[in-house]
């Protein structure tokens, strides 16, 4: 295998991992506050279709990205009203949100299926992108990938180094105690859910405006679900989310690579890899109970209402 | 009019009333705490102490009455406002975040102004040193002992500009030496001018620590007094009225043949944050009561589960637990019950009884082996007769046997559960915290029932956090600490101080001494 091929694989790995990274970072923040939002897939699709339509109609990719983020947040707000403020079951609401998002996006996207669009192109940074092996992967990507690097750094810094991160963790572990301390539990949870929605919308826009600039029904292909598993895989730690996103990215392009190398394994089998990997990893991780308990938000999935 | 020589009390309550659906929790309560005063708030469970504290701390609103802070009327809307006034509260169930460090927990409570948790570390060290509370600010809370967690809560209050410290049953989770340390700290705080409200139902502690006491009964103030000038009995009568059996003494017995025998029981808990058991040796004879002391979380629940059969050992380890000579460690609960075992678990609602089921159905729950079921069909008539017998024999106050278990008071339900087990004529009764949260009258009745069962020849094992109770009823006593069991001694030949040391792990067992030669297999 030559260096060029490896360099290409790494480049594709980051490209494929980016939507996973974006959604998973959003869901991580959301789950840290104690809210499990299974609606990621729905919010992603809604973001993808809105982003595409806006970009197509106005010709501005960035306006598309911005409104995709807003679209994700609108669905997240809906979820938060029901699941955070009205104490509905988070799992049921999340599933409903996904079903809603899938249906709504294909309904409003019908007229745009197969329309051509020039999406975000790669922007190679001079000199840095010439670094052998890693240059293309890190410095010859499109702008949204660079944005995902920055967002990763910001989320990591907030979670690990700031009071905001501490508050988020406290609310997710013991909302009753947090409230007794005067922390606004529901507002924190609302903001966390909205952040999750924004990230899912952005990830959707990445798919429809950069990764494959087009709109197709159900184009997220289960990435929202993989991202959910990814957060568990990462045992709620932000660096592992990054690692996991790229690992899954690698797993999903592996069948293309192996086909290119002439390995004769049915590509359908190889396309299963990321999903199989998810299950295997989840099983392996559940064995390390101490670590998981240390980072898992204890009140995950439990509604909380003041005064009880 | 207030003048300089007598400043207004720090906190004054006038006519505080709080009504919950179906109960008057606080009825026109007057209370005041002066600067530097340690005032006890005494009362049984359900007397209204917790409600009153919630009102002071802003966690509940009073329906009527006035709250004055340093002479000024105030309304405390929420806990953060209480903290701004200088009120700190140490809850009975701690409000700490287990996955965070001590410093992070403190930083969260202090608010954004406190800055970075790491900058707080030296201040926390300083405060904990000044008040004699050893504490490492950089450790995570889940790795701390219960006593250490309480210190975190207190230090957290002290880091703020505190004027009134409320402690809700602070000693219930501490060993006797830890209680002494806490009292030293509290006296120091009072000497510096901090007012302290000390909620408790332990009379000895109140008399040792507090300058004054307010006694509550059924939501009303029944007296203000100086606890140092009152006898335990006088205080108890203020708390519960004239109940009998407050000072009963029971003769000690030495027992007959060994019925329950545990030898070298070691068990690894799959939950990494919970206690594992190490090399436990224990025998209980027919006709004696063995008491196991210890602070909650030191292996009591695990020991109960292994004894009841809710946790089983593998077949080759079956002889580690024997009942009347028969190996049972691998048997499920119903098989053990057939051999004469009866259990009263610690948790009444949800473990000992199903809250939503009627008393009759709950009687069937563990009594099904008493001929109440034939060919898989429930014999309703026999179940009713059984339930009626329990209610009559143990004076359970209930409208009828069709009342749901949930609607009974703690004491009444406990009498029912204990009665259900006793009427099955067990050869071994194991009871955990039999009188926890039960009023004094019912507690005395439960003690009498246990003694009667003992005198009828049953072996009894009582696990409790209440040392006074254990000394009152048990014939031999030991303590659990960190999953190890101290040696058992005849109660008459030991004292609270010795058992208190055992509760902190200061004892030698064969296993402790023989580190070089592991004697048993861990399951």
Largest sheet of chain B at a glance? Answer: 7 strands, mixed
Measure the end-to-end span of chain A: 63 Å
Distance between the termini of chain B: 71 Å
SS element count, helices of chain A: 14
Q: How large a portion of the residues of chain A is in β-strands, by DSSP E?
A: under 5%
The first-level CATH class name of the largest domain in chain B: Alpha Beta
Give the oligomer, counting copies of the same chain as homo and different chains as hetero. heterodimer
By helix and strand content of chain A, what is the structural category? mainly alpha
Q: Which regions of chain B contain 5 or more consecutive residues with pLDDT less than 50? A: 511-518
CATH class of chain A: Mainly Alpha
The CATH superfamily of the largest domain in chain B is identified as P-loop containing nucleotide triphosphate hydrolases
- Total strands of chain A: the figure is 0
The portion of residues forming beta strands of chain B comes to: 15-25%
Q: How large is the radius of gyration of chain B?
A: 25 Å
Regions of chain A with pLDDT < 50 over 5+ consecutive residues?
A: none
The tally of helices of chain B reads 17
The main β sheet of chain A shows up as: none
Q: How many domains is the backbone of chain B divided into?
A: 3
Give descriptors for this structure.
heterodimer, A: 308 residues, mainly alpha, ABC transporter involved in vitamin B12 uptake, BtuC, 14 helices, 72% helix, globular, B: 523 residues, Rossmann fold, seven-stranded mixed sheet
Secondary structure blueprint with pairings:
The complex is a heterodimer of chains A (308) and B (523).
Chain A: H1 3-32, H2 40-58, H3 61-85, H4 90-109, H5 134-139, H6 143-161, H7 163-173, H8 175-180, H9 185-211, H10 223-233, H11 238-260, H12 267-271, H13 273-285, H14 289-295
Helix pairs in contact in A: 1-6, 1-9, 1-10, 1-11, 2-3, 2-4, 2-9, 2-10, 3-4, 3-9, 6-7, 7-9, 10-11, 10-13, 11-13
Chain B: E1 11-20, E2 23-33, E3 38-42, H1 49-57, E4 64-69, E5 72-74, H2 79-85, E6 87-90, H3 102-110, H4 117-130, H5 146-158, E7 164-168, H6 176-191, E8 195-200, H7 203-209, E9 212-217, E10 220-225, H8 232-240, E11 258-267, E12 277-285, E13 289-293, H9 300-308, E14 321-323, E15 326-327, H10 333-338, E16 341-344, H11 359-367, E17 373-374, E18 377-378, H12 380-393, H13 410-422, E19 428-432, H14 440-455, E20 459-463, H15 467-473, E21 476-481, E22 484-485, E23 489-490, H16 496-503, H17 510-513
Parallel strand pairs in B: 3-8, 3-9, 6-7, 7-8, 13-20, 13-21, 16-19, 19-20
Antiparallel strand pairs in B: 1-2, 1-4, 4-5, 9-10, 11-12, 11-14, 14-15, 17-18, 21-22, 21-23
């Amino acid at each position: 295998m030559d260096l060029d091929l490896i360099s290409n694989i790494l480049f594709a790995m980051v490209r494929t991992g980016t939507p996973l990274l974006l959604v998973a970072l959003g869901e991580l923040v959301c789950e840290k506050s104690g809210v499990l939002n299974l609606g990621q897939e729905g919010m992603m699709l809604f973001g993808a279709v809105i982003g595409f339509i806006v970009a197509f109609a106005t010709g501005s990719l960035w306006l598309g990205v911005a409104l995709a983020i807003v679209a994700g947040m609108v669905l997240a707000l809906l979820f938060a009203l029901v699941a955070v403020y009205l104490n509905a079951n988070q799992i049921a609401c999340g599933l409903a949100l996904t079903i809603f998002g899938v249906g709504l996006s294909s309904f409003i996207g019908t007229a745009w299926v197969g329309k051509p669009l020039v999406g975000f192109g790669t922007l190679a940074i001079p000199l840095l992108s010439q670094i052998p092996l890693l240059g293309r992967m890190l410095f010859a990507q499109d702008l949204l990938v660079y944005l995902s690097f920055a967002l990763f750094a910001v989320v990591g810094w907030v979670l690990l180094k700031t009071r905001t991160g501490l508050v988020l963790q406290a609310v997710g572990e013991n909302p009753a105690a947090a409230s007794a301390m005067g922390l606004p539990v529901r507002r924190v949870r609302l903001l966390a859910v909205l952040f999750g929605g924004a990230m899912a919308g952005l990830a959707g826009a990445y798919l429809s405006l950069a990764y494959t600039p087009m709109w197709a029904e159900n184009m997220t292909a289960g990435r929202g679900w993989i991202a959910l598993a990814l957060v568990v895989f990462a045992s709620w730690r932000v660096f592992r989310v990054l690692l996991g996103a790229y690992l899954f990215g690698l797993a999903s392009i592996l069948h293309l690579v192996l086909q290119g190398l002439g390995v004769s394994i049915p590509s359908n089998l190889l396309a299963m890899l990321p999903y199989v990997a998810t299950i295997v990893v989840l099983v392996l991780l559940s064995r390390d109970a101490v670590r998981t308990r240390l980072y898992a938000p204890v009140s995950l999935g439990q509604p909380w209402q003041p005064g009880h | 009019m207030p003048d300089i020589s007598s400043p207004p009390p720090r906190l004054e309550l006038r006519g505080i009333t709080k009504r919950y659906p179906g109960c008057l929790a606080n009825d026109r309560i007057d209370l005041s705490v002066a600067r530097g005063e340690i005032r006890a708030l005494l009362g049984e469970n359900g007397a209204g102490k917790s409600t009153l504290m919630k009102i002071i701390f802003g966690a509940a609103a009073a329906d009527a009455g006035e709250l004055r802070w340093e002479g000024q009327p105030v309304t405390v809307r929420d806990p953060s406002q209480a903290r701004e006034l200088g009120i700190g509260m140490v809850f009975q169930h701690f409000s700490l975040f287990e996955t965070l460090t001590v410093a992070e927990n403190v930083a969260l409570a202090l608010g954004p102004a406190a800055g970075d948790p790491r900058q707080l570390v030296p201040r926390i060290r300083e405060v904990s040193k000044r008040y004699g509370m050893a504490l490492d600010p950089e450790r995570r809370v889940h790795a701390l002992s219960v006593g250490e967690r309480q210190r975190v809560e207190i230090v957290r209050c002290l880091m703020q500009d505190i004027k009134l410290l409320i402690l809700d049953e602070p000693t219930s989770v501490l060993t006797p030496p830890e209680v002494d340390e806490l009292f030293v700290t509290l006296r120091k705080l009072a000497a510096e001018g901090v007012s302290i409200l000390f909620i408790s139902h332990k009379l000895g502690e109140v008399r040792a620590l507090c300058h004054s006491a307010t006694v509550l009964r059924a939501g009303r103030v029944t007296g203000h007094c100086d606890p140092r000038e009152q006898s335990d009995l006088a205080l108890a009568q203020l708390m519960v009225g004239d109940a009998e059996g407050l000072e009963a003494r029971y003769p000690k017995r030495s027992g007959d043949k060994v019925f329950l025998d545990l030898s070298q029981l070691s068990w690894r808990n799959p939950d990494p944050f919970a206690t594992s058991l190490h090399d436990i040796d224990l025998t209980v004879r027919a006709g004696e009561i063995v008491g196991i002391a210890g602070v909650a979380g030191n292996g009591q629940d695990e020991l109960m589960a292994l004894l009841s059969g809710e946790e089983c050992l593998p077949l080759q380890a079956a002889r580690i637990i024997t009942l009347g000579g028969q190996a049972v460690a691998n048997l499920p609960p119903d098989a053990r019950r057939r051999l004469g075992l009866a259990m009263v678990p610690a948790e009444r609602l949800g473990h000992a009884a199903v809250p939503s089921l009627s008393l009759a159905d709950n009687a069937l729950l563990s009594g099904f082996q008493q001929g109440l079921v034939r060919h898989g069909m429930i014999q309703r008539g026999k179940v009713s007769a059984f339930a009626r017998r329990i209610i009559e024999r143990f004076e359970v106050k209930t409208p009828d046997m069709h009342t749901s278990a949930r609607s009974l008071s703690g004491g009444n339900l406990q009498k029912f559960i204990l009665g259900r087990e006793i009427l099955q004529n067990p050869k071994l009764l194991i009871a955990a915290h039999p009188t926890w949260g039960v009023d004094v009258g019912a507690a005395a009745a439960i003690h009498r029932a246990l003694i009667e069962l003992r005198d009828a020849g049953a072996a009894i094992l009582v696990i409790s956090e209440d040392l006074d109770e254990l000394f009152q009823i048990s014939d031999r006593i030991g303590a659990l600490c960190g999953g190890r069991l101290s040696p058992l001694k005849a109660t008459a030949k030991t004292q609270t101080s010795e058992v208190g040391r055992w509760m902190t792990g200061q004892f030698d067992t064969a296993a402790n001494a023989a580190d070089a030669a592991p004697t048993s297999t861990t399951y």
